[in-house]
Amino acid sequence: QVQLVESGGGVVQPGRSLRLSCAASGFNFNNYGMHWVRQAPGKGLEWVAIIWFDGSHKYYADSVKGRFTIFRDNSNKTLHLEMNSLRVEDTAAYYCAIDYNSGWLGHWGQGTLVTVSS
Amino acid sequence: DIHMTQSPSSLSASVGDRVTITCRASQGIRNALGWYQHKPGQAPKRLIYAASSLQGGVPSRFSGSGSVTEFTLTISSLQPEDFATYYCLQYSDYPWTFGQGTRVEFK
Question: A4 to chain B: nearest residue by CA?
């Protein structure tokens, strides 16, 4: 069955970097665009970024543009989010999700928690 | 960027009530809007796509309407399993944006 497992979260100081990973299995990873979505404690969902199936196109939320980079390793079926210059407001649970077209985030991982604090 | 304004932020309702949630886009998005239901500890689930099309397997008590900038999610008769937080999501243009969410609570 489809499985997405995020990892890499933790506690980090403001200004530092962190890399999140999302290991995919149970579907043809190479054929699908992938997203990152986050949810700050007590807040709503925030779309973060998308990467096309072949890595050719990437788009970001304004709140992370220039600081975060989404990339993928299709040979290892893994999605990544490189987060630089982290801010307190980046504190959130980060989820990867599959793009099934037409705005459908069809499967989600269980999330990994990032806490940015001094 | 397209900003989605969702209202209300929360509502209290009883089983059997009709519930309406609204999303307004800061610019026209045609019908590129979906509605998601999110329960604690679970992945968000899409209910409606293209503003008014029911996702497969979703009960018919859920419906969506609207276009361009004004959109509505309606639950015709609220059921116990419908107590959750609901989000609209515009996918007309990048960056995609969610509404702020509507928490549906038991009255």
Answer: B43
Over the stretch B76-90, which tens digit does the pLDDT of each residue have?
Answer: 999 999 999 999 999
Of B1, B34, B38, the CB nearest to A103: B34
Q: Which residue has the tokens 């779309």?
A: A47
Query: Which among B44, B94, B99 is the nearest to A108, CB-wise?
Result: B44
Residue B58 in contact with residue B49, Cβ under 8 Å? no
What span, in angstroms and rounded, lies between the C-alpha atoms of A96 and A4? Answer: 7
> Do residues A97 and A108 make contact, with C-beta atoms less than 8 angstroms apart?
yes
Are the beta carbons of B63 and B52 closer than 8 angstroms? Answer: yes
Element (H, E) at A96: strand A92-99
Asked if A113 reaches chain B (Cβ–Cβ under 8 Å), the answer is: no
